[in-house]
Specification:
By secondary structure, the protein is of the alpha/beta class. The chain contains 4 helices and 28 strands. Helices cover 17% and strands 27% of the residues.
Length: 259
């Protein structure tokens, strides 16, 4: 089915737009843009050069996709934003493209970005994540599958949030938040395992207890992260989820919150 495009939208003839899209008045779309099938683009959205948008996405009023990176290292390089399928991007969201030549900011599938969210250059977001009102994600960050940010949380550059982690409202953090935990406060504190999300994900209750034990070693012990990794390997029964925790700790560059 042909797309329904308002004559009041300003769309480059070079842009590639899929089938059965609906594009409202006053949308602005530049040359180097690709939009998949069944997308809805609401009024006053700007989709800039370097945008690669998948299928079944809804982008609401005032959002800017592939805005130039707010990075002093940016020198006009050709870079991109890649957005997967089935995402909801609400009003006034800004997503910056990458800084360097070929750099990419990635948003996966089935994410929900509420009003006023900002995703900065070269950040990678997985699938099924939720970003509350006014969340700000700095450049070169990672947000793994199923992470949830409550309103007004701020993630500093070069940090990671693990799978199924919950970042509570107003939290600001500059170290990695590991998977399966609740984190919040100023300064940030460990709030225990994210039981609700683990239950929703079908993680076995016995495995959840093992995850809790791993985090007791991490957050209540007085040893280094390096030593905690060895303790988890020695003392906590193995599972894919425990391996996820171990790998996350091993890969940290900025350090782990509260350590």
């Amino acid at each position: 089915m042909a797309s329904e495009i308002s004559p009041k939208a300003e769309i480059s003839p070079k842009a590639k737009i899929g089938n059965n899209c609906k594009i409202f008045p006053f949308v602005y779309i530049e040359d180097d843009v690709e939009i998949g099938d069944n997308c809805i683009i609401f009024p006053f959205v700007s989709i800039c050069d370097g945008s690669r948008i998948g299928k079944n996405n809804k982008i609401h009023q005032g959002s800017v996709i592939a805005a130039l990176p707010q990075d002093f290292n940016f020198r006009g390089a050709k870079s991109y934003v890649e957005i997967g399928d089935n995402n909801v991007i609400r009003e006034n969201v800004v997503i910056n493209r990458g800084t360097n030549q070929g750099g990419v900011t990635k948003i996966g599938n089935s994410n929900f970005l509420m009003e006023g969210v900002h995703i900065s250059h070269d950040t990678v977001v997985g699938d099924y994540c939720v970003f509350g009102y006014g969340v700000k994600i700095a450049g070169d960050c990672e947000v793994h599958n199923g992470a949830i940010f409550s309103s007004s949380a701020v993630q500093h550059a070069n940090t990671r949030v693990g799978r199924l982690a919950m970042v509570q409202s107003g939290t600001t953090f500059s170290k990695d938040i590991p998977p399966f935990v609740v984190a919040g406060g100023k300064p940030i504190e460990y709030g225990g395992p994210n039981v609700t999300m683990m239950n929703n994900a079908g993680i076995d209750e016995k495995v959840q207890k093992h995850i809790a034990n791993a985090y007791r070693l991490l957050f209540h012990g007085k040893t280094s992260v390096f030593d905690v990794i060895k303790q988890i390997k020695d003392q906590v029964p193995d599972s894919p989820e425990v391996q996820t925790i171990i790998k996350f700790l091993e890969d940290t560059k900025r350090g782990i919150m509260c350590k």
